[in-house]
Specification:
Helix content is 2%, strand content 41%. With 444 residues, the chain is mainly β.
């Protein structure tokens, strides 16, 4: 005798749905079911950005808070990008990585428009104290830096740039400088034996030669300013000619840089250490400063006058430049990337020194038959490593991986560009000595 029973999986009876022969307690009415709202994934606000940090933990520059049960003595670096809570509570518009510290610019109607975290031995991220007379030499999470703004409600932060122990903040009210001024890098008079740790002084430069400042760049211990007519001004440490003032002396006042750029309209500056690169409106590149690593191959000594780097003219129009501690990078209008100097140049382990620009293959930046439109739109660098952002919002890195600053999940050096796994479309990337900060647009 066959005891198997044929049970229909789905039975409709009197507009009621029955499963396995049992009646539902609450019948489903098809007409009403179709009226139910459909819930979709929430789309991020247009101005919302995610902030990621990675690299050395001990300096506090990552701006990351840690749980009480986390063992920091066993975790001295963050080897992969991780979102920081600060970016969820503030609308971050810009960031700058210094030597062991980070500064964020946020959209605000109050005077708290910039926040700093990390090493603060020279008050480069403002004066902070818990007890009166005991300033903090290190901050492990971002704290606001009050600027002496005339109109804090309307003022906007235009650009941030950080050096070894000083900070430049460009606003629509002018330039503010903070931190160490031992060589005049803050654009003010050098005070012998000044105690920078206890200093609460912020220097304000509204204009230079009655010209509006439109861009700034920090070297290691010197500063550069670009004004509205394309002229460049500099101050600070000049022992390697990095100020470009035809001298190797220090300068405590922003002074015009001449040489080959005197009649040029400069539109971009780059300097992470002691060699400066300048890009004009025609796509030509100029350089000056420390050239011992073949940044200017035809020169075998320090160069204190801006010099046209003629070997780059054959590459085509340059759109992005980056100057690290011992090597340089450029990206052309067609998205080609070239590097030269001394270091990990992105062309493999056998290419660590070159007097000529080395072409880094486009396929390493994601250009292939499936994505023929992929190209690099911006290059930047830290002291020992490089980064490139593509038009699809991808981030590629290579170089010395000190404290996991490449964000690849390990601490091994990287000899060619490799894509970073990060949760968003990268819009801005800032590289320091041993840490990095990325501002990303969400995927949805």
């Amino acid at each position: 005798m066959n005891n198997r029973v044929n049970i229909l999986p789905l039975i409709y009876k009197c507009n009621q749905r029955l499963f396995s022969g049992s009646r539902r307690k609450y019948p489903i009415y098809i007409e009403e079911e179709q009226k139910l709202p459909v819930f979709e994934h929430r789309v991020s606000k247009e101005n919302y950005r995610r902030i990621f940090s990675w690299g050395n933990i001990y300096t506090g520059a990552l701006g990351k808070t840690f749980k009480s049960n986390e063992k920091l003595d066993q975790q001295f670096c963050l080897r992969y990008p991780k979102r920081i809570k600060f970016g969820e509570t503030q609308e971050v518009t810009a960031a700058a990585c210094g030597f062991g510290f980070t500064v964020f610019a946020v959209r605000s109607t109050s005077n708290e428009k910039i926040w700093g975290t990390g090493i603060n031995t020279d008050s480069q991220i403002g004066y902070h104290e818990v007890r009166t007379g005991h300033p903090l030499e290190i901050l492990f999470y971002p704290k606001p830096i009050a600027l002496p703004l005339k109109y804090p409600e309307q003022s906007k932060i235009i650009k941030l740039s950080a050096g070894r122990a000083h900070l430049l903040v460009l606003t629509d009210e002018g330039l503010f400088t903070l931190g160490n001024n031992a060589y005049g890098q803050c654009g003010r008079k050098i005070i012998p034996d000044e105690n920078y740790l206890r200093s609460n002084y912020i220097n304000h430069i509204e204009k230079i030669d009655e010209k509006k400042i439109i861009d700034v760049e920090c070297g290691q211990d010197h500063s550069l300013a670009l004004v509205e007519d394309g002229c460049v001004y500099s101050c600070g440490w000049g022992a390697d000619g990095q100020t470009g003032l035809s001298t190797f002396d220090n300068c405590s006042e922003f002074t015009r840089v001449k040489g080959d750029i005197q009649m040029e309209k400069i539109c971009k500056l780059s300097c992470r250490s002691d060699f400066v690169m300048a890009l004009n409106d025609k796509g030509q590149v100029f350089g000056w400063g420390n050239t011992e690593y073949n940044q200017l191959p035809s020169y075998h000594q320090q160069v204190s006058n801006p010099t046209h780097i003629e070997m780059l003219d054959k590459l085509g129009k340059i759109k992005s430049i980056a100057s690290a501690g011992s090597f340089c990078l450029v990206a052309t209008d067609s998205g080609q990337v070239y590097s030269w100097g001394y270091g990990l140049l992105g062309c493999g382990p056998n290419a660590q020194q070159s007097n000529e620009p080395l072409h880094i293959p486009e396929v390493l930046f994601g250009k292939n038959d499936f994505h023929p439109e992929n190209e690099v739109v911006e290059v930047t660098c830290g002291l020992y490593y490089s980064a490139a952002v593509t038009n699809s919002g991808n981030l590629y890195v290579w170089g010395r991986n000190k404290y996991g600053c490449l964000g690849l999940g390990h601490e091994k050096d990287q000899y060619f560009p490799i894509k970073v796994a990060i949760g968003g479309y990268v819009e801005k990337i800032s590289c320091g000595v041993d840490h990095s900060i990325a501002i990303c647009k969400p995927f949805i």
